[in-house]
Amino acid sequence: MKNDHTQVTDLLPFYAAGTADLPDRVLVEAHLPGCLVCQRELQEWQKIGRNVRSVMVAYQRQLELPPLKLPLPTRAASRTASPTLPAHHEVYRTPTLTERLTDRLAAWFRLAPNPAKKGNVFMREYSTREEEDLVTLPPTRQRGFYRALVGGLVTACLVAVLVLALAIANRPDTSPNTASQPQGQLGAKATQAVPTAVPTPTVPAKPTGEVTTAAAAANSAGFSGQLVSSIKFNPNAGANPSVPEVPGHTNVAASPDSQMVAISEEGTVKLFKTADGSLVKTVDLPAQYKSSVTWALLSWSPDSQTLAVSYYYQQKAGPEGVTSQVQFWTAQGELKTQLAGLTEEVDIINWSPDGNYFLTSSHSYNGQNDAFNLQLWDKNGKPVQRLMQNASIPPIRIAWSPDSQLIAATVENGNVVGPLSLQLWQPDGKVVATYDQLPKASANSLAWSPDSQSLAVGLAAPSDNLWIFNRQQLLAKAAKPYVTLVGHMDIVLAVAWSADSKTLASSSVDNTVRVWDVVSGHSTATIKVGQLSEIGIAWSPDGNLLAVAASGQNTLVVDKTGQTVATLKETGKVEYLGWSKDGKVLQSTLDTGAFNTWLK
Amino acid sequence: MEKNSTTLVLNDHPDESDLALLREMAVGRVEALNLLYARYGSLLLVYLTARLHDRQWAEEVLQDVMLTAWNGAGNFQGRSSVKTWLFTIARNQAVNAYTRRKPGPDPLDPEMPGLAGVSPEKLLERSLDGATLQEALLQLPEEQRETLELLFFQELSQAEVAQVMRVAPGTIKSRLSRARTNLRKFFKVREDFE
To answer: What percent of chain A has pLDDT over 90?
Structure first.
């Protein structure tokens, strides 16, 4: 139990800043008159505060606020819009085929804005308002009239087509496999796993499943584009944490078998089935000493049987009151084991592909500065080896070779872009290769080829930005253990290997995705996709399809030649894309707080 | 308080009026966005410029922040103040911008001329007092300086600073403690500090 003096000492900077809450102010004011030490400390904080304000005011005086010039999408006023407390795990209602055709036709006749240009507002409109709002909104009254008119015509045509289809369907059928809708693996399981027994108020309605494919050709190319489930989460939790080298939402983790997704927010970890979006279990994290958004860093083991859950929280006042935890749960959310005696804040958990080891990248304060550690553990939580100890430089990207024999990491000077080096360790902690001649640029991506023989590094550089290292040459300390792929005119964001280990896809700030034949070093396809997301490219397991997080809140599915197979309309910027191992499901995480599962 | 179709009349309490602005933004009232911008734009610009050390870049990111706020107004959860929410967005956008930035002069290099092309040294010349301490502040590690700024200049509470920086509240205390230790070290002896 802390005494008043220690407690007050902790509170003094907030008291000096005028942001301490009332009970804390009372405590400080009761203690101060009798404590000379605290009086001196308070004066010190007040002086610091005055000078901080003085510096910042000097900054502010030199900054003239520029006019706001945003390409704001027009937003229809909504009677039902409530910005305060929307349902948290609600599934938005996707527009029906009729609605989409109506809007598309209306756009052709210039009666309505092109939905493709409206971004997420388009989707929000459908998700938040009653149908009749379309014709009662003053700014869009005229559009609504024509929309209704065109919609009526379209509906009539669809009814006619439906009658015709029914007539055909009612004919004697000789095929035993006739199906009225795509029946992928997850789709079939969804039918079996209707969550009638799941006791949760947040079970979403099953989406309509016809969200979009870009063209009729999409289906013929083998991508249905059916939205299986869409699970909402708080977009403010877990995104872009204080460690900028961890991209995307670290509080959302899809199991490698694509069956489950774990989401942490508001002091809980929730487990959902992706087949139908049903909530399986909610686990409460320990309560904070003071209110603060709490979420855990999540990482599934390769066999999808274990979920690593890392979090830290304020148990009591003072720096020593912070408790750090790494726990291991079953896929059903039951605690299996936890790491003991951990005092560092864990930023990354990275499992070896064989599931026998995992790495933690963490940071702690060593009395002078932040110290970064990279620790290898066996799957039972027994420490194996410190790969980095009290380093002033954090590992920026970490990648296990698929054969689990090597760990690669790019290392740079913290937030400051400094000399970048590539290091390889064996699982026993021995450094087996270091290459420190990379350009002075941050590494945005690091990926091993599936055969573990090549390592791709994507750099934040306008040129010399895509490097392919040869494993054997790196280990042999060859003078030039790499080739560079020349083509991207700007920062490389993400890289992804195809299953054949000879084809690589890369995305860049130059607004293209390139497909490379790594053997020849030539780019075999260039896909112009507009402004790209940070990390979103993923090959299907068979290497035939490439999913790309493209501009305009779309996920593009292209073939190896760059031809568009399907365009999936998302409701936010895509941060993560991943295929199930059987290639039947594509999953996306959006910055607006949605985890979508699409059926191939 | 009355509200008509053309003029926004808001409650005096900042949180309430901020929330009212978000409600109006959620239903498409651009003037509400302009009001929010007028209220917080300057503070956000200072914060972003201090993070990115490039005025033009900060102005661009500020536009992104306001666009994100516009798009996200309907999803505001009400679990923090609007101001904290805006700073959280600003920090995220700064990190995003930082990730995507092109190599060049290191924006976190303390020697680099910072705001509006004015070096910290020149900035200090304009200060009337406390120049030495201000120089020390400018030499603090980024995370410590940011913590001090959010607390003393942006006037966020401990929990709010922790939320914006996405760390535990205790971490804020330890960062402040480190900042003070560094400042003391800068002056070698504490007497210089007083």
So the answer is: 25
Say if the Cβ atoms of A68 and B63 lie within 8 Å: yes
Per-residue model confidence as pLDDT tens digits over A519-571: 999 999 998 876 655 557 899 999 999 999 887 678 889 998 888 899 898 88
Average pLDDT of span A1-8 = 68
In a domain, A151, yes or no: yes
CATH code for the part of the protein at B119-189: 1.10.10.10
A-interface mutation test, from B173, B174, B187, most A Cβ less than 10 A away: B173
Select from A89, A236, A493, A535 the residue whose CB has the most chain B CBs within 10 Å, as the one to mutate to test that interface.
A236
Residue A514 in contact with residue A506, Cβ under 8 Å? yes
* Number of separate domains in chain A: 2
Comparing CA positions, the residue from A425, A504, A503, A410 lying closest to residue A459 is A410
Cβ-contact A372, A391 below 8 angstroms: yes
For residue range A362-409, what is the model confidence (pLDDT) as tens digits? Answer: 877 655 566 778 889 988 888 888 888 777 666 778 899 999 999 998
Q: What is the largest CA-CA distance in chain A?
A: 96
Which parts of chain B have pLDDT scores under 70? 1-16, 77-79, 99-134, 186-194
Residue in A49, A83, A460 closest to B26 by CB: A83
The last residue of a domain, from among A161, A190, A214: A161
Cα separation, B134 vs A224, in Å, equals 61
- When computed from its CA atoms, the radius of gyration of chain A, rounded to whole angstroms, is 27
Residues A302, A300: Cα–Cα separation, whole Å? 6
- Of A113, A144, A161, the residue that ends a domain is A161
User: Do residue B108 and residue A415 have CB atoms under 8 angstroms apart?
Assistant: yes
**Which chain B residue lies closest to A493 (C-alpha atoms)?**
B100
Here the tokens at position A139 are: 């700014």
Burial of A353 (0-12, 13-18, 19+ CB in 10 A): middle
ipTM score for this prediction: 0.80
Give me the total of CB pairs closer than 8 Å, taking one residue from chain A and one from chain B: 252
Cβ pair B109:A416 closer than 8 A: yes
* A556 DSSP β-pair partners: A548, A567
Inter-chain residue contact B74 with A81, CB threshold 8 Å: yes
pLDDT at A173 over 50: no
List the domain boundaries for chain B: 8-111, 119-189
Q: Which residue range is the domain that position A147 belongs to?
A: 92-161
Tell me the CATH number for domain B8-111.
1.10.1740.10
Cβ within 8 Å of A, B 127-156: 127, 129-130, 133-134, 137-138, 141-143, 148-149, 151-153, 155-156
